[in-house]
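Why do we bother with a discrete structure alphabet at all? Because it lets us treat a fold like text: something you can write down, compare, and reason about line by line. To make this less abstract, here is a complete entry for Class F sortase. Read it the way you would read a sentence in a foreign language you are learning: slowly, and without expecting to understand everything at once.
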Amino acid sequence: MADAATDTERASSAHRAKGARSGLTTVVLGIVVGIVLIGHGLAQRSDGPPEPPTAASVFADDGAPTADPMERSVPTRVRIPAIGVNAAMMPLEASASGELAVPPPDKADMAGWHDGGVTPGQLGTAVVLGHVDSRDGPAVFYDLGRLRKGATIEVARKDGRTAVFTVYGIDMYDRTSFPSKQVYTDAHRPELRVITCGGTFTPGTGYSSNVVVFARLTASR
């Protein structure tokens, strides 16, 4: 495992409040560059984080119905059966300058959600992110690049309900040309973005890219 220059991870984002249908106030993240997750260089090894294949980046609406929006409720756990994720969640706040925090390095097994925006299942675009690796090895979203369209993401909530999302796209973007509008702009349906880092690791600057999973709410229980 390569040595990392730092354990500090940061996510650069500017956000603005926006009115959404049904009277909810949501947050749109206007990311200038991709989320910066400075990891520990496992991508330099043959067993480094997987990357989505080019074919996975083709976005197509498969006609699956979108479930009705859910009321706001704090997410407590995220499960992605296809890649073995079953992780507790913690809230992540944006600073006054618009920098979005990520889970601290000693909580690399946890996922975080942007609590300044909608919660998973609400109308709009909820954002979940987490580490790809740590000093101890693979972290919570190490295998995110293995996901394929049609996979299920389940988010357990404090109200006892579970929001079930279906993946309809996955791609990897260079941080310097990150398509913020496509990734973060609020949709007119309940959507989810799950993000980690990927691409080439460079000591001092971290990973060059972000893996982004796009999913929509298809059920609740």
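What the structure line is telling us, in plain words: The first strand starts at residue 11 and ends at 12. The helical segments are 180-184.
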